[in-house]
Amino acid sequence: MTEAIAYDVIVLGAGPTGENVADRTRAAGLSTAVVESELVGGECSYWACMPSKALLRPVIARADARRTPGLRGAVQGPLDAPAVLAHRDYYTSHWKDDGQVAWLDSIGARLYRGRGRLDGPRRVAVTAPDGTEHLLTARHAVAVCTGSRAVFPDLPGLDTVRPWTSREATSADHVPGRLVVVGGGVVGAEMATAWQALGSQVTVLVRGGGLLPRMEPFAGELVAEALKEAGADVRTGTSVTSVSRDGTTLTVEVSGGDRIEADEILFATGRAPRTDDLGLETVGLEPGSWLTVDDSCRVEDSSWLYGVGDVNHRALLTHQGKYQARIAGAAIAARAQRVPLLETDRWGAHAATADHAAVPQVVFTDPEAAAVGLSLAEAERAGHRVRAVDQDLSAVAGAGLYVDGYRGRARMVVDLEREVLLGATFVGPGVGELIHSATIAVAGEVPIDRLWHAVPSYPTISEVWLRLLEAYRDA
pLDDT at position 1, please? Predict the structure, then answer.
C-alpha cells in the first residue's frame, strides 16, 4: 500500500447522493475524494430511476393518447418494444459513465475506482480493480453514500433459477413472454406496468392485502384495477413457497398449492444497506447495518462519519438522498470552517427536516400515484387529531380535458388543531406534477386559510386544490 493521501472529505459511493456531497464540499473549497466500485452515477442512473422511467414513459403516453379524442385511433397496436428498449439504453448512456466522470472532474473531485473500506477513524483503504491499493485519510469527514441493494426472501435454491432484482428488470434486453412479479411496492407496481405494456404476460403476487401499502389504500386499489384491465393477473394474500427452473421455464409454487409457469421472476421484496463489506467494524459499528444519523446526517456518537441517502434508512428515494447530501455537505463545510451550526434552527441549512414530515414520492404507473407527508392512518397512529378530505378527480374540469373518462382520487389530511396539511395523496393520469405544490404546503406548514388564496389555474388538474379546500370549509 502506498503512502496515505490526505483529503478534507472522502465520499464512499458516487451515486446521486455521493455526487451531491462532493459538489457541496468542493463548492465550499474542501478537497474531496470520491470512491466508487461500479459506475459513477450509481443505481439511479443505470438501474433505477432513469431506466425505469424511460421504460414507463411510452407506456403512459400511449395510455393517455388512447383516452384522448382524435388520437385514440392513431395509437392502436402494440408498443415498439425494441424502440422502447433503445430509448432506455440511451438514457442509461449504454451503461457507460464517461459523462458522469467528466462532471466529477469538472468540479475538481478526485475519483478512485475500486472497493473502498473504512480502515479505522478517518481512514479509507481502496482496492482498485487491478489490485492496486491506496490509503486515504480525511481531515474532516468520511461520507458513506453507498446506497442499498435488493434482498431476496429465504427460499431454498432460489439462486439457481437466476431471479431478477430491480437491476435485471430495468436493464433486460428482451421482453419475457411470462413474468412473475413478487411484491406490490413501488418497484413491483412500476415494473408490472412496464412489462405488461411491452408484451409480457404479468402475474403479480402480493403477500399483503394490496399494492402500494405505504400509500393511502385507494392508491393501490386504482393501480391494481388498471393492471387487471391491462391483462395482468394480480393476486393478493399470496406468498411464494418454492421456485424451480427446468431449462428456460420457471415453475413458481404459491401458497394454496397453485403453480405458475413463467420465463422470468422478479423479486421486489425489500432493500438492505450496502454496508456489509464497508469496514464498519473498524470504527465500532455493526457490518451490514443501517446507519443512525442526526439531522445533519452525521452518524450518532461520531464527529467525522456521515451516513447519507439510503444507508440511513430515513427515505430510500433519490431526491431525498440528494436533499440529504446538500444538508450534509453544508454541515461538513461549516464544521470544517468552524462556523457555528444553528442546531436549534429546524429549517436551517444544516438540518434535514423534510425527511421527517414532508417526503414526496411519485409512482409512475398508469394511473400515476403521488403522495407526500402522512397518510390518514399514519397521522392517526402518530396521535394527531385529523380529518381526511377526499375529492373525485373526475369532477375537476381540467382532468376531464386531460383525458376522456378520467379516473382518479385526491386526499388531503388536515391537522385540526393547527389547521395545516400533514399529508396529501393524488392518484390519476398526470398527477405526478401536482405533488410539488402539496410538498410546499406540507413542508412549509402553510395554514389552510392561506392556501385558500393560492388560486389554481383553470382549467388544470391542479384545480383539485380548490375542490379539496371547499370541501374542508363546507363540511
Answer: 53
- Confirm or deny that 244 is annotated as ligand binding: no
Q: For the chain, which domains are there?
A: 5-41+97-149+272-354 (3.50.50.60), 158-269 (3.50.50.60), 367-474 (3.30.390.30)
Task: For residue range 213-267, list pLDDT tens digits in order.
Answer: 999 999 999 999 999 999 999 999 999 999 999 999 999 999 999 999 999 999 9
Residue partners of 29: CB distance under 8 A and separation at least 6: 333
Containing 354, the helix (H) or strand (E) segment is helix 354-357
184 marked as binding residue: yes
Q: Is 210 assigned to a binding site?
A: no
Q: Is 137 annotated as a binding residue?
A: no
Residue 53 marked as a ligand binder: yes
Burial 48-67 (b: 16+ CB within 10 A, else e): bbbbbbbbbbbbbebbbeeb
Hey, what long-range contacts does 398-405 have (CB within 8 A, 24 or more apart)?
398/458, 398/459, 398/460, 398/461, 398/462, 398/463, 399/428, 399/429, 399/461, 399/464, 401/459, 402/64, 402/429, 402/430, 402/461, 403/64, 403/67, 403/68, 403/429, 404/67, 404/68, 404/69, 405/67
Q: Tell whether 258 is in a known binding site.
A: no
The reply, when asked if residue 185 is annotated as ligand binding, is yes
pLDDT in tens, 299-346: 999 999 999 999 999 999 999 999 999 999 999 999 999 988 766 577
- 35 among annotated binding-site residues: no
For the whole prediction, is pTM greater than 0.85? yes
Residue 256 assigned as binding residue = no
116 among annotated binding-site residues: yes
